[in-house]
Design brief:
With 508 residues, this protein is an alpha/beta fold. Helices cover 37% and strands 21% of the residues. The chain folds into 3 domains: 12-115 and 298-363, no CATH class; 124-159 and 166-276, Rossmann fold, CATH 3.40.50; 368-504. It contains 18 helices and 21 strands. Strands 6-3-7-8-9-10-11-16-15 form a 9-stranded mixed β-sheet. A 4-stranded mixed β-sheet has the order 2-1-5-4. Strands 12-13-14 form a 3-stranded antiparallel β-sheet. Helix 1 packs across helix 7 and helix 2 (16-24) packs across helix 3 (26-41). The longest helix is centred in the N-terminal third of the chain and has 22 residues, at 114-135. It is globular and about 65 Å long.
Amino acid sequence: MKLLSPAISSLARMRLWRIEAWKNNPFDAQREVLQDLVTSAQYTEFGRKHNFSNLFNVRDFKSAVPIHEYNDLKPYIERTMQGEQNIVWNTPIYWFAKSSGTTSDKSKFIPVSDESLQDGHYKASKDVLSLYYQYNPDSELLTGKGLVIGGSHNINPVNNEARYGDLSAVLMQNSPFWAHWLRTPDLNIALMDEWESKIEKLASTTIKENVTSVSGVPTWTLVLFKRILELTGKKTMSEVWPSLELFMHGGVSFTPYKEHFQKLIGKDINYLEMYNASEGFFAAQDIPGEDGMLLFTDHGIFFEFMPVSEYGKKDPQTIGLQDVELGKNYAPIISSNGGLWRYLLGDTIQFTSLAPFRIKVSGRLKHYMNAFGEEVIVDNTDKAIAVASEKTGAVVNDYTAAPVYFSEASNGAHEWLIEFEKEPTNIEVFTKELDAALKNVNSDYEAKRYKDIALRMPLVHSVNKGVFKEWLRSKGKLGGQHKVPRLSNERKFLEEILQVNKTTFVNK
């Protein structure tokens, strides 16, 4: 494989002219995507109902089709899962990506058409590879294997034809045969549904491989790395995998984890952020170290952006790429070649660049704290945690926060539960640095903290290692795609985690 590396690099970079075409002409690309979507679906049940045959511009499309959340589209999706076709998309849909968050016990099943696989996920993956080789022309990435830390569910039959599983499972099952040569572990391990056994298998089998890249959610990747170091007796992952050169991550902000990864890996490698989900592959980092991911405008998805202030209104307004502004929070609305129409993803994003369009994920629509008008989002708290950790020498594994409401005795506050890998010498100093960093990144929080008018100093608790993992286990959500909600505007999750800390562990 080493001899093939220059040829592989050249082939990957041959795609760059295609990337440049949609990167430099995003409005044209998006216009063509919407036209293709509406034309393809005009004779589906959904298309007939919403008069797709007579829609000729974005304005008509937005007027004819309301914004949908999952429950709005669920009846169409359930019928498709039972074998009916031509409901939301014009080609047969036999695969569904199972998606669930920690905020709900119910699962979502996102339709995955052949078009969404080929023109979405796989095309985007090739573009990511091409962009990587553009800045790393001498890379030996494909001379070894890529370790994929995927989801935790097996592929499950729904009926005689339809099947569902985590997105990673669906992608693996439908990838070409040669892709399996470049990936580890074997499918029978990658698709295991019992997460703790899976970690053991992943660790014991991949130790022996020449791993050049790793992709996964940071939290679970750390668990795997630590187990591998325990099994091998090595001090760093670079001793286990000397050729490791790339970590691809997404799902949660990498900011609080980067220092920890650098120490565990033990050498400088490349880090690449991606924004992909069951609903589609939306963006990826195109320039190393750049604060933002290139928005993929030619991958079967038409984007609209809803200002966060519109959420919850009867008729929320959206804007197109031509009207977005830097630094403002938007909720992406997508229409896709998988049969999702004006679908509210639930994430919030900010634009970091307008030429080309680059974005970063700033949080979730329902994951924030605004009990006192402070409007704290995950992007704020991730940055504050990183600053406080750097200034105190702490290393944070995970965290969650929620409001403490006003009482007769005191003003409100934010209460934090933090699982430290390395505790600060003084928790009070850490708390002060966290508070100062939050004031620095959020003027509303700073105003509410002024002389403790509305918010007093945060309450920070160091919880025992494993508490968040145990809480996820209690919810039946232990595994790759499941994450602890960073922020909540009510105390339900925080109280549950406190109870786990109290009953399962010795309290600190």
